[in-house]
C-alpha cells in the first residue's frame, strides 16, 4: 500500500477515534478528557497503534478503561470507515503535550535583556 494512502487512513482514523471517545460511557475514559495525538496503522491494516494524551484522571485507570472498551471502539470505527479490514487497536500514552507545556513554561520564564553597547574608545 502506498504511504500516502496509509497516511490518509491514519488521519481519518484519528478524527473518527476522537469522536468515538466522546460517546464512550466508561467513566474512566469519559471523564479523562482524552485527545488522540496520532494513529499509526501497519501496512496490511491489521494493527494500529493509537497514541493518546489524558489531561485528567489517573493514568493507569485511563489505560485500563481504554483497554476494556477497545472492542466497542473498534466496532464503531468499522461502522464509520469503509475499510476491508478494521485494525486491532492498541493504546499508548503520549507525553508530547505535557512535554511541550513544560518547555513553554520554561521559555516564558526566560528574561531577555538588551545587549549592552560597547564603547570602542581606543
Described by the principal axes of the CA atoms, the overall outline is elongated
Task: Examine the secondary-structure arrangement and name the CATH architecture.
Answer: 2-Layer Sandwich
Global mean pLDDT: 84
Strand content: 15-25%
Count of discrete alpha- or pi-helical segments spanning 4 or more residues: 5
| pLDDT < 50 runs, ≥5 residues | none
- Report strand order across the widest sheet: 1-2-3
Structural class assignment: alpha+beta
The biggest sheet amounts to: 3 strands, mixed
Name of the CATH superfamily: K homology (KH) domain
Helix share bin: 40-55%
CATH hierarchy, class? Alpha Beta
Tell me the CATH topology.
GMP Synthetase, Chain A, domain 3
H/E series: HHEEHHEH
Q: Termini separation (Å)?
A: 70 Å
Number of strands: 3
Gist?
The chain has about 120 residues and is an alpha+beta fold.
Describe this structure in words.
- The chain has one domain (3-96): GMP Synthetase, Chain A, domain 3 (2-Layer Sandwich).
- The chain is 48% helix and 18% strand.
- The protein is built from five helices and three strands; from the N terminus they run H-H-E-E-H-H-E-H.
- It has helices spanning 3-23, 27-30, 59-68, 70-80, 96-108, and strands spanning 34-41, 47-54, 88-93.
- A three-stranded mixed β-sheet has the order 1-2-3, sandwiched between helices.
- A hairpin with a 5-residue loop joins strand 1 and strand 2.
- 19% of the residues are buried.
Amino acid at each position: 500500500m502506498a504511504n500516502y494512502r496509509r497516511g490518509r487512513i491514519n488521519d481519518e482514523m484519528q478524527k473518527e477515534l476522537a469522536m468515538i471517545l466522546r460517546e464512550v460511557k466508561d467513566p474512566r475514559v469519559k471523564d479523562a478528557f482524552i485527545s488522540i495525538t496520532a494513529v499509526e496503522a501497519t501496512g496490511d491494516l491489521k494493527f494500529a497503534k493509537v497514541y493518546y494524551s489524558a489531561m485528567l484522571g489517573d493514568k493507569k485507570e485511563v489505560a485500563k478503561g481504554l483497554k476494556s472498551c477497545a472492542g466497542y471502539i473498534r466496532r464503531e470505527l468499522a461502522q464509520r470507515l469503509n475499510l476491508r479490514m478494521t485494525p486491532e487497536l492498541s493504546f499508548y500514552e503520549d507525553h508530547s503535550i505535557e512535554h511541550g507545556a513544560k518547555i513553554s513554561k520554561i521559555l516564558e520564564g526566560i528574561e531577555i535583556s538588551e545587549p549592552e553597547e560597547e564603547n570602542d574608545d581606543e
